[in-house]
């Protein structure tokens, strides 16, 4: 672009700005235009495009009017009132969206409370009209910046940003490449804790921030969404860190030996008998929640490592270099109710015998139903024919 064209663009831009501010007092208008002209010339020399950098002359004039505290033109009072209402709706709806993202991010690692996703959806739906107004150009930046609540929030934000020392700010900026790694780690952590819906939300937010984050420095319309997304990921990261530290402190790692234990003693096998002491050839064990107590099943087949809850297990022995599976009880059980009623069956003799001295006594018949009774003498009875 040659000097003549550049000069003509500057003249046209200044003319339209002056026309948009024509309702101001003459001396104030002259003062404003005196300050504006060198600034516009400098911007034009740097960029070569005033409209691309500052917007239309009317938009720039509106920004000057808002910055100087001048009232809107009398003919535009009605339209300006609507724009002010739309700007206020946009500011408060995006603030609510950011707050909701903070809350939902803190609950992202919890599989419960599924209603949090409804909160996020409806809040985003409520903020949609304001976002549409901004991206369509109906709501201008000057309309938003003219709100007292926006100026108040921005002043507090600038004051808070100035608290850290420049060295701290520079250090935080140097960590910016690592933020993307932290976001990927967050997604993996949510997968480990089993928060499936949280993983989906985090992936969508990370993908959006990857695209919109770098562009928000030049397109300020994306800034509210970028702030809300970062708020969600920040509280989600904090929650995952606290959750992991709580799990590690309350549930220390300890080794639990496999199989069944009773009073600290490992059980090789389990047997069951009925009320009469007869072995139950097959039964299955469950815990109080109905879960099977599966253990490794003994077998001579080295390649077979079956897990089941069927008992008793076969006893594996090696005889002559060969593996043998034995069934049955390795002991003689005592009937559980032997002391409650007399037994009518004979007792199995013990394998160990004891010697008891025997005193002389009359002989006793082997039949348990016959007893010896002394017979007294009686006169003989004679039968006569």
TrEMBL record:
The chain crosses the membrane at residues 89-111, 117-139, 180-210, 222-244. It comes from the Bacteria. Keywords: Membrane, Transmembrane, Transmembrane helix. Residues 342-385 are annotated as: Disordered. It holds the Pfam family HAAS. This is Proline-rich protein.
């Amino acid at each position: 672009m040659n000097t003549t064209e550049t000069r003509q663009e500057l003249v046209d831009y200044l003319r339209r700005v002056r026309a948009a501010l024509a309702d101001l007092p003459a001396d104030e208008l002259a003062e404003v235009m005196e300050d504006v002209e060198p600034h516009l010339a400098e911007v034009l020399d740097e960029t070569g495009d005033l409209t691309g950098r500052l917007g239309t002359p009317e938009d720039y004039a509106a920004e000057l009017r808002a910055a100087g505290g001048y009232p809107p033109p009398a003919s535009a009072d009605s339209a300006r009132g609507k724009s002010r209402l739309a700007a206020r709706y946009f500011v408060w709806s995006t603030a609510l969206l950011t707050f909701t993202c903070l809350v939902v991010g803190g609950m992202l690692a919890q599989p419960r409370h599924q209603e949090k996703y409804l909160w996020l959806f409806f809040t985003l739906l409520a903020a949609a009209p304001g976002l549409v107004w901004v991206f369509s150009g109906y709501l201008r930046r000057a309309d938003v910046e003219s709100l007292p609540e926006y100026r108040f929030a921005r002043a507090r934000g600038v004051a808070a940003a100035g608290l850290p020392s420049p060295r701290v700010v520079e250090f935080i900026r140097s960590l910016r490449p690592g933020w993307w790694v932290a976001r990927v780690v967050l997604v993996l952590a949510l997968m480990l804790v089993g928060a499936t819906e949280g993983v989906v939300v985090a992936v969508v937010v990370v993908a959006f921030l990857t695209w919109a984050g770098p562009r928000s420095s030049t397109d300020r319309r994306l800034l509210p969404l970028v702030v809300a997304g970062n708020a969600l990921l920040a509280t989600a990261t904090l929650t995952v860190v606290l959750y992991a530290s709580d799990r590690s402190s309350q549930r220390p790692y300890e080794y639990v030996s496999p199989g069944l234990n009773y009073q600290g003693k490992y059980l090789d096998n389990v047997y069951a008998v009925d009320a009469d002491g007869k072995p139950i050839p097959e039964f299955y064990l469950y815990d109080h929640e109905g879960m099977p107590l599966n253990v490794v099943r003994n077998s001579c087949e080295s390649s077979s490592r079956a897990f089941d809850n069927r008992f008793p297990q076969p006893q594996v022995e090696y005889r002559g270099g060969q593996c043998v599976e034995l069934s049955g009880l390795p002991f003689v059980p005592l009937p559980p109710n032997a002391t409650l009623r007399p037994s009518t069956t004979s007792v199995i003799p013990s394998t160990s015998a004891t010697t008891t001295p025997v005193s002389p006594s009359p002989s006793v018949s082997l039949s348990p139903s016959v007893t010896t009774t002394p017979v007294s003498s009686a006169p003989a009875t004679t039968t006569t024919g």
